[in-house]
Structure formats: C-alpha cells, structure tokens
Amino acid sequence: MITYQFEYHRPKTLAEAEKLFTPEAKFLAGGQTLIPTMKMRLANPTALIDISGLKELSFIRAGSDTVVIGAGTTHFDVANSTDVRRAIPALAFTAEEIGDPAVRYMGTLGGSLANNDPAADYPAAALGLGATIKTTRRSIAADDFFTGMFSTALHDGEIITEVLFPIAERAGYAKFPNPASRYAMAGVFVAKTKHGVRVAVTGAAPCVFRVPQMEAALTKNFSPDAIANITVPADDMNSDIHGSAEYRAHLVTVMAKRAVAAA
Amino acid sequence: MTAVSLTVNGKPVSADVENRTLLVYFLREHLRLTGTHIGCDTSQCGSCVVHVNGRAVKSCSMFTVQAQGADVMTIEGLAKDGKLHPVQEAFRENHGLQCGFCTPGMIMTAVDMIRRKPILDRKTIREELEGNICRCTGYHNIVSAIEDAAKKMGAA
Fold first, then answer.
1. Nearest-neighbour CA in chain B from A149: distance (Å)
2. Exposure of A210 by Cβ count < 10 A (0-12 exposed, 13-18 middle, 19+ buried)?
C-alpha cells in the first residue's frame, strides 16, 4: 500500500498549475481513482500537482438554459445542490450513484471526466446531455471528448475548468451496478433536449457511447416500449467474469427502458 | 519530506512527512492513533474512515500533505470526558460488532451520516454504508445501532 515516491505541488492558481506540469506529472483532484491506482503501483507519476484546493474550480451556476459546474466540484456537492436537483434532477441522481459517501466527498466532476473510466457514471451524463467541457485552452463537445478506454481529447497539461450541462426537458439515468465493485455493468443516461433525444451508455463497452437507433425511436415516441426491441450488438460489448457480452447487451436495453421510465 | 501542520482530535500536530505518506499511516504510525484501521489494499473497505474538516473520508485514499491545515477527527476523538459518543454507546448496546475490526470506520461513517440525515430508516442506513464492509457480515446489528443512535440523538 505504499506508492512510489513523487514530488508534491500545491499551486495557488490554474496558471501556476499548468506551468508546473511535465509529461510525467499528474494533476490530483479528488484522488479517489488516482491514489488507489498509485497504491497498487499501477501509476507512477513523478509529481502530483494538487488542484483540489483551487476555489475557482468549485462552483455551481444554474441559468435558464444550462447548469455550469466547476470541474473541482465534488460529487457530494452536485448530488446535494438544490440548483442541480431542480434544473437537472437526473444529473444530481447520477452524482449520488457514484461510489460511496466517502468517495463522493472527495471525487470531482473534472477528475471523473478526465479519467474516463469505462464504467464511470459521469461520462454517461455528459454525453447523454450533450455537455460542453471547458478547459484551460478550449471548449470540447462531449461528442468529441471521450475517445476510448481511459482516454479523452485532453492534451498533456490541459485542465478541465468547468462543464456546461444543457437543461433537458426530461432526463433519466439507470444503472445496473456490479454487486461487488458497484461500478456500472451497464448504465444508461437518456435525455430529451431541445436538440433531440440522446442516449448514452457507460459500463458495457470500453468507452461511453451513444445509441442512434434508440434515439430515433425515442424521438418519435418517448416511452420505454419504443425501445424494448432495440438491442446493441454484443460484438462491441465487454465480456468478463462478471458478465458476458450478450448479457451486457441485454442489460443496455433494460437500463435504457428504466432510464426513460425515470425521466 | 514536507512539513505539515494540522489538527488531530483538537490538538495541533506538526511533522515532516514523506509526500507518499497516506493519512492513515500518519495517524497510526507517527501519532500512534491505532484506532483507525487498514482493512484492505484497494480503498474499498472503509475501516480507515476519519473526519477531515467534518466530512467522513477514507484516510487510505489521501496523502498527509493534502491534510495541511485540516481539522482531523479519528475514533479516539469521539468520546468526551470519559463518556462514549452516543453512536459508540449505541454500538455497544446493540452489539453492533462481531470481530470489531470494521467498527471504527462504521462509527465514523455513522456519525457523519446522522449529522447529514438525522431521520434515518434502515434502507437509507444500508445505502449510506455502501463504503463500509463488515467481513463478519454483521450488518444487521450495525444497522440497528445506527438507527438507535439516530433516534436517541434526535430526542436529545
């Protein structure tokens, strides 16, 4: 349980944090994935740049069309925000579904998105709502952000600063947690937005993905029955000791129906 | 080595620590506060839960240097003037433990839970205990103890 040695920096501003970055360093936000990974010695950053204390990254601003959440905002604060609960209840629910209470006190929105764990909850919400991810350098649409397993469009040293979530007419999230790890075996976020219906799936495949067939069906008829006979190809699903690819493909449809029912 | 200063159970503490010293090791090995336990290597078991600035977090999943300036409370800080905290008392009365290894984390989690949700039903207690594993599987009496403590603290 002892990590490798590393240097520790606690910058006072984002600009300072960016300057401290080297390709072998890691930004430390909530640390609830990074630190356990370092403990297993599966990660060996030469330096940690602790951005968890940056107040400028921790805020929630609800407007008429969007909810803007600072990247350093914890899952606990999102789950318990009256603004988020009123504007996008499914987003508050998603935050509440992450990990356990101790993890939710520490873990952050930006940390979760930047890590892009294939079974994390937030990527489904970001892709499902069509969020925009703002960084120290640019804005990235969620559709372009998640590029593969544990990989994103972020460049080395680029820091997520805030995420703009469009307020949906209706939205819902349903996940089937792994009974041991509680990570999603399949989690589906469904949103009916001004720009159409979006369906995003996490946990089932190597990376969060959308299901255009379900989106088309739900655009015509936003009800669980409309997607009851639509399945995703098992070829693309994860297969492991916890469940076969066919099982996960089946779960996606079940969870999608539940998410629509919850929306 | 990095110099850190924090408050632990109401007392100021300063030390030079390796950056990689997890908070739980600092508490156990530097301060000899061995009530906080280490039950796993994977950050899942919750037996190391302490309060950092009033929030129940896993002391195995943060480094001591991150606790610079923080107010930390461990299981040793709960009892006041030789009198058990109501949650500790409820665990004793309800036999909310078997081997007792997970108990410090269970109690620190329960104190935080009751502060946030003074009115608790058994289902909520079980959901809130998601991050605390009892390997004896003695959850029934743990849930009863927390339910009892919440009622008594609400009435007080």
1. 21
2. middle
